[in-house]
């Protein structure tokens, strides 16, 4: 794998608190990877370490084989939207980008092109104090792209976006990947993450608890089978004899776990139990997330 981001045995302690605990993962070039985890899981600390804003207690985080501080021209390697972006309220969107363009050594001609790219062309001359939260998110994305970086690190870029804006963001990320860029994106909008990412990384208490393409993770978890039969008690016993756990789900209904509709149907036929309705319900990314982080039991 051609890894553009590598995190190796990363640990970060704040006093007695372990925010990141021996974390290791790699992000392949030209991919969109979702970085997920409940609040306090270590996501932001990991991203801040990757961007040179936090010093690790142990381990390392690199971009294209180097720590952020060792990148010769970081603006052209990695762009980021991290935490709540700060804007001078009296500056226009265009002036905000011009200030950052000068700091990054980027030509001013790129500013207006980026404002159009993120859908702020008509608002470029307005002062940022009048921007909505969604517009500020778009301006943050434009700022991250100033140096035309090969890597994007985005922390909750969907915050403040309406449904149309979220759809725009999804297309925006896909377009950046199609240009050959690598995107590491954290988000709580799991349904949207599932539609756009190539794979996900799930953190819990500073450790990696799941990694892989969404389709593989959901397939591995199995699709529960919901079935209504003439004798759910006897069907549950028959399934248990085959090592399948089935739980009641209303009058006449069972939910069988880690099996298939074909197997449930065959078991019912063998025991001459009439089945009235049956359907498999594929796992979602949210199901996987709640399961591996232990949030489903709360």
From TrEMBL:
Pfam families: ABC_tran (PF00005). Keywords: ATP-binding, Nucleotide-binding, Transport. One of its GO terms (molecular function) is ATP hydrolysis activity. InterPro entries: AAA+_ATPase, ABC_transporter-like_ATP-bd, ABC_transporter-like_CS, P-loop_NTPase. The keyword Nucleus does not apply. Residues 5-230 form the ABC transporter domain. It comes from the Bacteria. SUPFAM superfamilies: P-loop containing nucleoside triphosphate hydrolases. The keyword Metal-binding does not apply. PROSITE patterns: ABC_TRANSPORTER_1, ABC_TRANSPORTER_2. Belongs to the ABC transporter superfamily. This is ABC transporter ATP-binding protein. It comes from Phytohabitans houttuyneae.
């Amino acid at each position: 794998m051609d890894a553009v981001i590598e995190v190796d045995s990363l640990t970060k302690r704040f006093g007695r608190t372990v925010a990141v605990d021996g974390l290791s993962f790699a992000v392949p070039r030209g991919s969109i990877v979702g970085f997920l985890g409940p609040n306090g899981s270590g996501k932001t600390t990991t991203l801040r370490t990757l961007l040179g804003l936090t010093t690790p207690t142990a381990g390392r985080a690199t971009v294209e084989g180097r720590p952020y501080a060792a990148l010769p021209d970081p603006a052209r390697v990695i762009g980021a939207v991290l935490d709540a972006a700060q804007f001078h309220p009296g500056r226009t969107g265009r002036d905000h980008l011009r200030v950052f363009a000068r700091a990054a050594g980027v030509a001013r001609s790129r500013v207006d092109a980026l404002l159009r790219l993120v859908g702020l062309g008509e608002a470029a001359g307005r002062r940022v104090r009048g921007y909505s939260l969604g517009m500020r998110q778009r301006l943050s994305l434009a700022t991250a792209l100033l140096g035309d970086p090969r890597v994007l690190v985005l922390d909750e870029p969907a915050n403040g976006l309406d449904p149309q804006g979220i759809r725009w963001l999804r297309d925006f990320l896909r377009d950046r990947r199609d240009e050959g860029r690598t995107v590491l994106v954290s988000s709580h909008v799991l349904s949207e993450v599932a539609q756009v990412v190539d794979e996900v990384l799930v953190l819990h208490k500073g450790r990696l608890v799941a990694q892989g393409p969404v389709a593989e993770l959901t397939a591995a978890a199995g699709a529960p089978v919901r079935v209504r039969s003439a004798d759910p008690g006897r069907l549950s016993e028959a399934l248990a004899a085959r090592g399948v756990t089935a739980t009641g789900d209303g009058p006449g209904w069972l939910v069988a776990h880690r099996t298939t509709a074909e197997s449930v149907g065959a078991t019912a036929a063998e025991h001459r139990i009439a089945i009235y309705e049956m359907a498999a319900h594929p796992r979602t990314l949210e199901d996987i997330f709640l399961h591996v982080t232990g949030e489903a039991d709360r």
